Amino acid sequence: NNQQNTCGVVNNPKNRVKHIIGIMSGKGGVGKSTVTAILAVELKRRGFKVGIMDADITGPSIPRLFGINNQRATGDGTYIYPVKTSEGIDVMSMNLLMPQETQPVLWRGPMIGGAVQQFWTDVVWGELDFLLVDMPPGTGDVALTVMQSIPVTGLVMVSTPQSMVSMIVAKAVNMADKMGIKVLGVVENMTYITCPDCGKRIDIYGKNASQEAANKVGVKLLGELPMDKDLMELSDEGRVEKFEAFREEFKNISDSILGSI
Ligand code: ADP
């Protein structure tokens, strides 16, 4: 039953995962992990079975967002079992395997690729509708190894307006194309702020800037997200599952993703 997929990675016979979606960014700090987490929450609220693989091995932040960073994954010698969040999202992260959260992972690319591959072959995800993969940032060696190690079916790019207009996103899109992985679109993060007094949207980088940049790169604009104080606070407190602000945006982003897979 150990079928090989197109990446040459052996599938775990215990896993039945319908869609594996990689969340990618041209560089770090643009909100890739945050978007991964909220997207997972939104899909879970819709009744899907959802898991998150934190493939950002050297900068794992998913467990902290869900407040499970003090828990540890369990194993039985053959398989490793993910940790469940309070709302029932399955999470696997290097952070859940290290003795201490603060310990750095001092590995080179191939070792990281090996670990990520094990997150697929040795972790019991069971039956999932969606496995979201929080990819390592950038278009370097590590991201490449991850793309080769996990049978990702589609990619969602996360970008800020600055990185959108630079060539970073175009580079990431080219990389996905070369690997034969479909780019579902781009989520632009921290595009605008909402005035706390009148609720008016203030486009920091000008109106339609995101759409124009997306057109230029040749990707679908899945949505724009504001810079939001509540989101930052909930993330810091490990309560991202309590997130309610700008849910409408995430509903639309999810609809777009569901429509294109
Ligand atoms: P990445 O995964 O790309 O490195 P993170 O998701 O860890 O980025 O986000 C980087 C920082 O920015 C975090 O402190 C996060 O809470 C904050 N952040 C991300 N998106 C937003 C947003 N829309 N509004 C406010 N803060 C945000």
Q: Within the CATH hierarchy, at the fold level, what is the topology?
A: Rossmann fold
β-strand amount:
15-25%
Total domains: 1
CATH class bucket? Alpha Beta
Bound molecules: adenosine-5'-diphosphate
What general outline do the C-alpha atoms trace? globular
Q: Work out the helix count.
A: 9
CATH homology group: P-loop containing nucleotide triphosphate hydrolases
Tell me the Rg in angstroms.
Answer: 18 Å
Poorly predicted segments? none
Tell me the structural class: alpha/beta
Specify the helix fraction band.
25-40%
**What's the rounded overall pLDDT mean?**
90
What is the CATH architecture descriptor? 3-Layer(aba) Sandwich
- Largest sheet composition: 9 strands, mixed
In whole angstroms, the N-to-C terminal distance is 26 Å
Order of helices and strands: EHEHEEEEHEHEHHEEHEHH
Using DSSP, what is the number of strands? 11
GO molecular function, one term: ATP hydrolysis activity
Protein name: Iron-sulfur cluster carrier protein
Function: Binds and transfers iron-sulfur (Fe-S) clusters to target apoproteins. Can hydrolyze ATP.
Subunit structure: Homodimer.
